[in-house]
Amino acid sequence: MVYNISDPMSPVLKKMFRDRNRFYQIVAKDSVDMFLDYTFRSRIGKYVWNKPKTSKFNETEYNNYLQYVKGIHNWEKKPQYIATLYTARHWIDGNHRAMLDEMHNALRYGIFNDDAKLSYIQGHIIQLCTTDNQPLIAEAYEWMRQIADEYPIGYYRSEYMRLQARLLTAQGKSDEAKELEEKARKVRMTQ
After folding, report:
1. Could you give the residue ranges of the DSSP H alpha helices within the chain?
2. pLDDT tens-digit profile of 14-68?
3. How far apart are the first and last CA of the chain?
4. Distance set, CA 121 to CA 31, 46, 106, 125, 175 (Å)
5. Is the overall model pTM greater than 0.70, yes or no?
């Protein structure tokens, strides 16, 4: 029986990643790549969704994973993983300002697009909404409004509007949030 099939740090998955060209001969390349990406992102999610400053955070494990990811060659998603790990570390340390700044920097480099960009932003903005840092929440709201404006209609615009609604709720503006949620539903279905 094979264990740790979902842990990118396990010997089995390290070998699979290293020898992925061999797997491409057996299984469709996109299937192999999607599986590997899923395992990397799942491990990263452990840090994105961590509670700040808790005893559950294992710094050695985090550093080992970061070093492993930094050592990867010929994998286009590597910069996304590293940026997400750095951003998550600021969250774990409770430094919300640094987290938001790191997000701005990562997006400025253009390493995230469409789904990856949305996922990256959602994870960290949802976490920010759990804090009482009202100035940063207000700043993030304006930023999400700007990003939503980049998409005239459709799914991405509606998702960024939903993030704005979460931020409004975190500011105690639940009526405005509900109204924006309704608009987001309509925008999603617009052509």
Report:
1. 11-18, 20-24, 29-48, 59-70, 78-93, 96-108, 114-128, 134-149, 154-170, 174-188
2. 999 999 999 999 999 999 999 999 999 999 999 999 888 777 889 999 999 999 9
3. 49
4. 25, 16, 10, 6, 24
5. yes
